[in-house]
Amino acid sequence: MSINAMEINQGQEQDRFRDQMQAFADWKADLTRLIRDFQDWLGQHQLNSPEIDLRVYDALRALESDQLNIAFVAEFSRGKTELINAIFFADFGRRLLPSEAGRTTMCPTELFYDRSSGNSYIKLLPIETRLSDVSLSDLKNEDSYWTTLPLNVDSPDQMAQTFHEVVKTKRVPLEDAEKLGLYVDELTNGEQEGNRRVKPQTVEIPVWRHALISFPHPLLQQGLVILDTPGLNALGSEPELTINMLPSAQAVLFVLSADTGVTKSDLDVWQNYIMAYRNKGQKGLVAVLNKIDTLWDEMKRPDQVEATISEQCRSSAELLGIDSGNVFPISAHKALVAKIRGNTELLEKSNLPALESLLGNEILPDRQRVIRDNIVARLGRSMDDIYAPLTAQLDDLSSRINELQAMRGNNEDIVQQLLQKAKEKKDSYYESVKTFQLSRKKLALQAKIMFNTLDIESIDKIIDKSRKDMAGSWTTAGMKNGMAIFFDSMRDAMQIVSRQSEETFKLVQAIYKKFHDEYGLRVSSPRLFPTKKYTDELDLLYLKAEEFRNSPVTTMSEQSFVVKKFFISLVSHARNTFIQASKEADTWLKELVNPLVNQIQEKRNSIEQHMKTLSKIRESKNNLESQLKELTTAKAILVEQTSALKKMTENLRRCMPPEPGPRPAGEPLNPPD
């Protein structure tokens, strides 16, 4: 069945999430056009600078690469993959992702659209790469590790068959499974021999470690990314899932089954790998009670069935420690059948539309607000950095025009007095500039200490020492102590950065105040370096290290494997935190100083130009009117520039995310007042 035919059969109500994703995409496109207009305006008036160009580029890149990440997490046989099929892929008229009974998804799977290549494919990472020292995020950038299979988007059957690769397994010797971290004796029901349990000779393991699927589904093209994760064992043995992927998702849908309720393994996943890795917050977390059709008892009245489902939701919420209203009872299977057959009544009974409404009306708008706030923060400062000196120049021109107008009919002595006064002002200003140059040297010394602390070579020395110490420790306590020492060192280093950035900030503030009070220079208030963002991240990484260290899977795994995973995931993440902090520190320092440097130079040029004007008038009074004309023309240009920039700034700051539901084609982002 074609997508268009499905839309006709299902009606607008069933396409609510798609409509909202489309409105989201349209809004981002309009916001992109607004930013490009600003970029063009900068070029036309030659007002751009390397720092502002970088901010504009970053804003455009952020919009272009923005994604809405939704992660689906569940133990086996909870109907998670069926739910993904029902929400996103019913248009294909069949199950696209494999979701038969029993264990289905064996490796974490990301579904997205690869804009850079425009191709449809499935990339599969062999399970043996778990033995390497390369992180999963780095492996994603190395095509040589992956097996790539093409997808024929015109053939749902071919795609469904290819997708079955993600559930493939193989049997390997027990020793190989243990090396891969895929067999932990204490957590595995081994074979029974009499009254005792013995280790098996071979173990069934997934063929693939990770899957990347790209194809041009409309929702994926609009920036949706779906992460489909297998259960407890995969989350425990792949720390990057819980350290990087789950926390970065805008929504995590935790799928339970109505026929089992909240089992011990469900609770382990929820407490150890979801709540713990989202800072104990519930924002963006959704518990889905699937398979409610197993509770549809034809021998009971509808209200009795509803009461049974409500009680199941209540008890599940109590065990998870959340409000019962945050548990969504659905039947993914019936919803998929209903969408394929166009059965509106069955779809409503499945209760899937309520979950789709949550995604469209709460999760998506939250993402829109984050984007908007980030863009306004990036570009709003750039616009302020341009607007402030423009208005200062405008005031300066107005003052000079008033001064020249007052000179009409005055004698040469008045002109000479003004020229002498301008010279004294110039000398005083130049002395202040010399003082500023000395302050810049002090600023450079403080910045050097800050950058030395953030230097990646220094961080790598700490990492190398920690690796050697942990590798040489043969006790659990010693290994755990090594983890704590490492993160203590990282946090101490970031505290040094915090102190240095505060001293730098205070020095720049004093310089700003001096030039503002004495010469009227207008520069946007500097921002403090966001050290807290990085210290919080390191603190959270430490907590994650503790969770990782104490989880059932890693606690019982081979120590060398645990140490390797610790460095591949947690330590590499901490290292990347310092790399990002160093990059931001470099940008921050330029933001602190360069706008002031530019204004100081602009003020110098203005003083010298004013002296030249007075000198010409002293030479001949006939020059007065021509100089007035030049200044009046320059003022008119500045008035036009400040007016245009003010309007763009207002448009940016009142740019609000769209209301739920589609925006009519052609409707502007910001309707005229």
Describe this protein's structure:
- The chain has 673 residues and is of the alpha/beta class.
- It has a domain at 410-620.
- The chain has 22 helices and 13 strands.
- The protein has helices at residues 3-10, 16-44, 50-65, 80-88, 136-139, 156-163, 174-179, 218-221, 232-237, 239-248, 264-275, 302-320, 332-341, 344-350, 352-406, 412-454, 456-471, 476-519, 531-550, 552-556, 559-619, 623-653, and strands spanning 68-73, 109-112, 121-126, 147-150, 169-173, 191-193, 196-198, 202-206, 208-214, 224-229, 251-257, 285-290, 327-329.
- The strands form three sheets. Strands 4-3-9-2-10-1-11-12-13 form a nine-stranded mixed beta sheet, sandwiched between helices.
- The two termini are 45 Å apart.
- Residues 1-14 and 660-673 have low confidence and may be disordered.
Notable features of this structure?
elongated; 22 helices; disordered C terminus; single chain; nine-stranded mixed β-sheet; alpha/beta; two-stranded antiparallel sheet; 673 residues
Secondary structure elements and pairings:
Layout: H1 3-10, H2 16-44, H3 50-65, E1 68-73, H4 80-88, E2 109-112, E3 121-126, H5 136-139, E4 147-150, H6 156-163, E5 169-173, H7 174-179, E6 191-193, E7 196-198, E8 202-206, E9 208-214, H8 218-221, E10 224-229, H9 232-237, H10 239-248, E11 251-257, H11 264-275, E12 285-290, H12 302-320, E13 327-329, H13 332-341, H14 344-350, H15 352-406, H16 412-454, H17 456-471, H18 476-519, H19 531-550, H20 552-556, H21 559-619, H22 623-653
Parallel strand pairs: 1-10, 1-11, 2-9, 11-12, 12-13
Antiparallel strand pairs: 2-10, 3-4, 3-9, 5-8, 6-7
Helix pairs in contact: 2-3, 2-15, 2-22, 3-15, 4-13, 10-21, 13-14, 15-21, 15-22, 16-18, 16-21, 17-18, 17-21, 18-19, 18-21, 19-21
